[in-house]
Amino acid sequence: MMNLDEIFVTRNWVGKPVRRDEDIRLIKGEGAYVDDLDMDCAHVAFLRSVYAHARITKIDTSKAEALKGVIAVVSGPEVAKQTKPIVARAITQPAIQYVMADKKVRYVGEPLVAVAAEDRYIAEDALELIDVEYEPLPVVVEIEDALKNDSPLIFEEAGSNVLLHDKLEHGNMDAAYQEADLVVKEHFRVHRYSSTPLENWAMIAKHEKGNDSFVVWANDQQPGRSTTNVCNTLGIPNNRFRLIVPDSGGGFGIKLAIWPYIVILCLLAKKVDKPVKWVQTRREHLLGGSHAPDCDVEIELPMKKDGKILGLFIKDIENDGSFVHTAGIYGLIKFATMVGCYDIRATRAELISVVTQKGPTVQNRGVGKPTMIFVLERMMDIAAKKLGLDPVEIRFRNFVQPKQMPYTTPSGEIYESGNYPECLQKALSLSGYNELKKQQMEMRKKGKYIGLGISAGIEPGTSNLGYYYTSRGVPEYMGNAEGAIVSIDYDGNVNVVMGSVDQGQGHATTITQVIADMLDIHPERVSVDSHLDSLVSPFLGHSGAYSNKFNDVDLGAVIMATKKVRDKMVRIASHMLGEETGELQLKNGAVCSSKDEQKSVSFQEIASLAYKKILLLPDGVEPGLKEIAYYKNSMAKRPSRDDFNVQITHSNSVHVVAVEVDMETGEVTFLKYVIVHDCGRQLNPGIVEGMTIGSTVHGIGAALLEEFVYDENGQPLSASFMDYMKPVAGGLPRIELAHMESPCPYTLLGSKAVGEGGAIGSVAAVANAVEDALSPFHVKVVSLPITPQKVVRAVKETKEI
Amino acid sequence: MHRVQARINGKDYEHEVDARLLLVHYIREKARLTGTHVGCDTGNCGACTVFYNGKPVKSCMMLAVQANRAEITTVEGLAGNGLHPVQEAFLNRFAVQCGYCTPGMLLSAVSLLESNAEPSEAEIREAIEGNLCMCTGYQQIVDAIKYAAEMIKGSAGKAL
């Protein structure tokens, strides 16, 4: 953390719930999402595989091409000839997959043919006229199917359906087992779900015939990586591809890897004399618009009788479906979150990624952290029960203590700040935990089953992108950074262009708050263009919105660029006023003498020299007032299997939940929901509150409602919001939120991640509460989601959810 | 092809349309009012909510031809040059994140307050059950609607 006095000249805006600058357009219906852009486009529809696994023996598009209104068609085999295979980030086995199905299809919904027509209705009509012949192949749906010795191979060249198998050990696990009084073991199964942004994927591609280049408008969440992936896949130089990201209707990770479709649109655009537009339908989104993988986790805790955990072993098998680009990522992020908030000195992890015939997976909100904390926090309750300890007590006995900060985990993750015991204490008192316990006993006598659940979760942020080197040698990306351009215009107002993008997080507002306090101006004088344009925005391979990096490196870049502009203005003012720079200060949009505030020049007057009267500038000062800065968090370690950090900041939270479970219907009703959250210094509490509550509701949906279900043939059974249940306003608890602020020493403002935390802590807390409610029936929760059917069955028969 | 004459936000529109054209596509593509959004294919998400002769409907569940001689209000027509109190409340209570559900959410909220000036939290939650929001977890939206009800009541008091 920098000395804030070096950054800010006022403290009027940062930390206050400043109203969101973005909202005025959005509430008037003046948002500019991709589908709103006023362009004369051809409209694209995709023919998708109806089989989970089949060889393609024929694709005949001639009738479709002959339909009136159809402009162009591309099919999988044609695309494969013109492109390189999809690049893999984490897996180690060779697996060749193109952006469209080539010789065979690997999941229901895989794109086979793309049609561009005068309107979407005609494009959809044309799909009906395409003749595809399939030769169905045996399917691999679940993890067990993929691991069988005689399992059909999805990628023959891989020789197996296991595409990544890695083992990592840190600290002395053998000693932990030897010293243990007991080993608590469990086996969990976590389902597939997704945070499903309300706006589906959308993109427009235009081919500039004159210089054979492309302009693409897309709601891409990670433009830095997408730009290079699209160019490499198409085999074109980067300067022939321009990506523009307008407003985006939610992301949550689900729009991080839309680039394979950008490749397809570019190839279609080459055949069409106007831009081509594809807006994904919800059905397409739920089929193949990417999910969090389902997984199977075995876990062991060698422990002492007093509840002290000596070591932690996990074997994680993730079902990554059929998308080689992101397969294998979740395991490594679970690994980074493995010890949670606890002082555990030895870890052993076996990480496996299998390919199956389920849909593609991508980084959904929290990326494995919600699962890891679910597993770990379930284990704390299970171990407590085994040892006759209170679930609260076992957590207190294992927490990393504030005096241990900064605390390094066995594998090298650095927890830089936080007070975990106080966070739990605060959540207990805010929720009236002891009182709730008394009520629980009384209600039970009346035949009502109330359960209390606690989770203490860690929320790592700012990804050190080299993390997947663990399996692949030297990684292509390392560390994390972002870029910003800050300029003062003729009027002395500030304009900002970012390398990152926004999907509703209120980045622009937060940036205006920071700059207003750096320059002593009203935030209204700062305008932030949150639309990325790869031609002008200062982007890096890291650019995008993921792992809650905004508060860290994005704002770091803004602060550094603003400092450069500020220093330059002071230098010019010093020349204009004839005062030493050290004698000057910023005040109300002007630079003035510290001794005599009457001696003052406004930003506008300074800008007038910088832009117009350039002959009056001091010697050696360039004209203009526009500065660019890239900022990297220097705490990211270089690749090494022995000592590495996957994420750079670490927020934490405690969730306390009270539920009532109806034994007849299996329905779970919320009675109380309390969160105490520590994301370091809060920059805008109104935004932090919304992010935390929204994220928590994602976790509640995942715990109780949502699941991508497949039948034994790999057919998805949840391809609309009628089958894939999202939380609605009714039935949700009123969430009470309180904060702790342990500033992060390694970010400029002392801020830390917010956004994933709710989704991380809630899944475990809800599951623990349900199990507690069902404790008279000796039911154990080892899988998700906790649906009413599973509850009723568990109480009557299986004793397990 | 069928002729559709519709009045949207007080302005008259007239187009020849296919019988199968959805009302939401008519509003977005023919009338070029893009504040009304599409978030699903099945009438579940409510992003396409508009007023149809004064009543909230999901415009992806209706055909454009059904709008013939109908009066339609979209988010763009919710207030004249200023802001509707519900819009003002959404601004004040951080009820917007990505903004994609917002237009539909606003229309459902306005419709609720027109029939129930002092809704309870449970009534507000029920009234917006047909509108999915993936960002906020609804709480700040619920708070905004409650605040809007208070603002409307307060200004009515002053007028008396």
Structural description of this entry:
The complex is a heterodimer of chains A (801) and B (160). Chain A is of the alpha+beta class. Chain A has 22 helices and 29 strands. The relative contact order of chain B is 0.15. Chain B is of the alpha+beta class and 160 residues long. In chain B, helix 2 packs across helix 5 (139-159). The chains are: A alpha+beta (801), B alpha+beta (160). At the A-B interface, helix 2 and helix 20 of A face helix 2, helix 3, helix 4 and helix 5 of B.
Q: What topology emerges from the helices and strands here?
A:
The complex is a heterodimer of chains A (801) and B (160).
Chain A: H1 4-7, H2 23-27, E1 42-48, E2 54-60, H3 62-66, E3 70-75, H4 76-82, E4 104-105, E5 111-117, H5 120-128, E6 131-136, H6 143-147, E7 162-170, H7 173-179, E8 182-190, E9 202-208, E10 213-218, H8 223-234, E11 241-245, H9 259-269, E12 276-279, H10 282-288, E13 294-303, E14 312-319, H11 329-336, E15 347-354, H12 369-387, H13 391-398, E16 407-408, E17 414-415, H14 420-431, H15 433-445, E18 449-463, H16 469-472, E19 481-488, E20 494-498, H17 507-519, E21 526-529, E22 532-533, H18 550-577, E23 584-587, E24 590-593, E25 600-602, H19 603-611, E26 626-632, E27 647-661, E28 668-678, H20 685-704, E29 736-740, H21 757-773, H22 788-798
Parallel strand pairs in A: 1-12, 10-11, 14-15, 20-21, 28-29
Antiparallel strand pairs in A: 1-5, 2-4, 2-6, 3-5, 7-15, 8-13, 9-10, 9-12, 11-22, 13-14, 16-17, 18-27, 19-20, 19-26, 23-24, 24-25, 27-28
Helix pairs in contact in A: 8-9, 11-12, 12-13, 12-21, 17-18, 18-19, 20-21
Chain B: E1 2-8, E2 11-17, H1 23-30, E3 49-52, E4 55-58, E5 71-73, H2 85-92, H3 102-115, H4 121-127, H5 139-159
Parallel strand pairs in B: 1-5
Antiparallel strand pairs in B: 1-2, 3-4, 3-5
Helix pairs in contact in B: 2-5
